[in-house]
C-alpha cells in the first residue's frame, strides 16, 4: 500500500521536531499505522534552513498554498500559529478535501466551530492533540478514553511558562518581574510573554477541553481570564503559611444549582488558584503540565508531562497522523467527532460569567493600623454574604496608609 503523503506548513520548532521524530521512528510508526507516513512537501519562508533540515528528498517551497494544491498530499499539518493566515490555510485545505492536523490552540479556540463544521461537511478530519498540553494525550483521553463518563470538572496546569515562574517565585522568594526576566533568559518565556502571563494561552486550551468535555461549542469569548502579573512573593509566602500553593489553573466544570440540583451552565475560567499542598497537582513544578479530570464513573484522574517543546509536541502531531492514516478509508460518519459529540447533539448550555460562579477566593488587604479595621473588613464581607475560611494577620512590610 502506498504511504500517506503529508504536507507540512511551518518548519519551526515543532515542525522540525515532527520531521525528526517521524524519520527516526519511521519503521515502528508504519507498523502501528498500517502503512507508511511520509512528509513529502514542506512550506516555510526560510527555504535554506528548511532544506538543510529535511534534505534533498523533500520538496521545499515558500508558498503554503502550493502544498494544499498538490493532489498527492493526503494530510496537511498546520504549524504556523496565530489566527489569520493559519485560518485561511486550514479552511482552504479542508475545501480541497485534505485532512488537517494542527497544534494551533488559538485558532481552534476562536474559530473551531467554523473549522469543524467545514470539515464535517467535507468529510475530512481535523486532528488537534498537540493543541492542548503538548505531549500529554489529554484530547484522546477526554474524547475517547473517558467517553463512558459524565465529566464533572477539569482543572489543569496547562501553561509551562507561568508554572515555571510561580515555581521560581516560591523557591527563591523573588517577585514576578525578576523571575520573568530569568524565564526569558532561559527560553521558558517569549520576548513578548503576554499570552502566557495574562492567562490567554491557558484559556485557549481550557476552551477546547471544555467543548470536548461538555458538548458545547468553543466559546473563548465567554471565558474568564486572569493572569499572574499581579502576584507578589508575599502572596506566594502567605499561601504557603495557609497550607497552599498558588497555581495558574484552567478550570471548566458543570455548575449545579445547590437548591434545585439543576444544571445552570458551564464554568470556564483561568486564574491563579490556591491548591492544597497535599494534592499532587500542587507539586507540579517548573515548566511541566498536569491536568485533572473528574468523571462520574472513573473518579479523578491525573495526566502529567511536558506541555511544550519540539519532540513532546511532535509526539502528539504524529499520533494524529497515525489516527488519520488508520481511518483514511473509513466512512466519515463513523469517525470520532471533532468535539466528541455528534454535531447534531451539541448542547446550548451557557458558559457562566465569573460573577455568577460561587467558589473560593484569596484576598490580600493592606489596611491602616487602626483599631476596628479588622471588624470593618469582616463586616463588609458579611454584608456581601462572604464567609472567611482562614485568615492571616501580619505586620506590614512597609507602613500602610489609610
Folded structure, characterized:
The structure is a single chain. The model has no long low-confidence stretch (mean pLDDT 92). This protein is globular. It contains 14 helices and 13 strands. Helix 5 (84-95) runs parallel beside helix 6, helix 6 runs parallel beside helix 11 (200-214) and helix 8 packs across helix 9. The protein folds into 3 domains: 4-127, NAD(P)-binding Rossmann-like Domain (Rossmann fold), CATH 3.40.50.720; 140-306 and 349-356, Dihydrodipicolinate Reductase, domain 2; 365-402, no CATH class. By secondary structure, the protein is an alpha/beta fold. The strands form 2 sheets. Strands 7, 8, 9, 10, 11, 12 and 13 form a 7-stranded mixed beta sheet that branches.
- Main sheet record: 7 strands, mixed
The gyration radius over C-alpha positions equals 23 Å
How many structural domains?
3
Summarize the amount of helix as a percent range.
Answer: 25-40%
User: What does the overall shape look like?
Assistant: globular
Distance between the termini: 78 Å
Strand elements, count? 13
In N-to-C order, the SSE pattern is EHHEHEHEHEHEHEHHHHEHEEEEHEH
CATH architecture label of the largest domain = 2-Layer Sandwich
Say what the CATH topology of the largest domain is.
Answer: Dihydrodipicolinate Reductase, domain 2
* The CATH C-level class name of the largest domain: Alpha Beta
CATH superfamily of the largest domain: Dihydrodipicolinate Reductase, domain 2
From the helix content, strand content and strand pairing, which structural class follows?
A: alpha/beta
How large a portion of the residues is in β-strands, by DSSP E?
15-25%
